[in-house]
Specification:
This is Heptaprenyl diphosphate synthase. The chain is mainly alpha-helical and 173 residues long. The protein is built from seven helices and no strands.
Length: 173
C-alpha cells in the first residue's frame, strides 16, 4: 500500500505540473524580456520540495514533467533549455532550503534566477556566442518577480495543505 500511495502522489504532482505548464502556454505574458514566462509549473516543484521527504522524488517529478512536456510540445532545444533551467533551479533551491536560512519565498526567487541562468548558458552554447549572457540581468529581474509570486502561492498552499489529514501520510512516503 505504501508504494501505491507514493506512486499516486507522484503521479498527481506530475499531472498538476503538466496542467500548469499547458495553462502557462495559453497565457500571453507581456514581459519586457522575450521568452520570459511565469513558471507556473515550478509551483508544483516548490510544493513538492517542501512537502515530500525524499528529494529524489522531487527530481523525478521534475524530470517526468520535462520529458512529457517536450515530447508533446517541443523538440531537442526545448528539452535542453528546460532540463538546464530545471537542473540549475532545483539544485539551487535544494541547497538554499537545506541551509534553513531562507524562506520559501527566497528559495523560490533564487530558483527563478538560477532557472534563467541555466537557460542562458544553454543558449550561449547553442548559438556559440557568450554575448547572450547580457540578457541575463533582464531575465533575472523577471525570474525574481515570478519566483516571489510562486513562493507566495506555494507558502499559502502549504499552509492549507497541512490542515488536511492526508498531509501527515504524505510526509511519510
Amino acid at each position: 500500500m505504501h508504494k501505491t500511495f507514493r506512486l499516486i502522489i507522484l503521479g498527481l504532482f506530475v499531472a498538476q505540473s503538466l496542467v500548469l505548464y499547458i495553462i502557462e502556454g495559453m497565457i500571453p505574458v507581456p514581459f519586457i524580456a522575450p521568452g520570459a514566462k511565469l513558471g507556473l509549473a515550478n509551483l508544483i516543484t516548490v510544493i513538492a520540495l517542501y512537502s515530500l521527504p525524499r528529494k529524489r522524488d522531487v527530481c523525478l517529478i521534475l524530470f517526468l514533467r520535462i520529458m512529457i512536456s517536450t515530447a508533446f510540445a517541443g523538440g531537442i532545444n526545448a528539452f535542453l533549455y528546460s532540463a538546464a533551467g530545471a537542473s540549475f533551479s532545483l539544485g539551487c533551491m535544494v541547497l538554499l532550503k537545506k541551509t534553513g536560512k531562507f524562506s520559501i519565498i527566497g528559495v523560490s526567487a533564487a530558483g527563478g534566477i538560477f532557472h534563467n541562468l541555466g537557460q542562458v548558458i544553454i543558449a550561449s552554447l547553442i548559438v556559440e556566442n557568450i554575448k547572450i549572457m547580457l540578457y541575463l540581468p533582464i531575465l533575472s529581474i523577471a525570474g525574481v518577480g515570478t519566483g516571489i509570486l510562486i513562493g507566495i502561492t506555494a507558502l499559502f498552499t502549504l499552509q492549507h495543505l497541512t490542515n488536511l489529514p492526508l498531509y501527515q501520510r504524505l510526509r511519510k512516503i
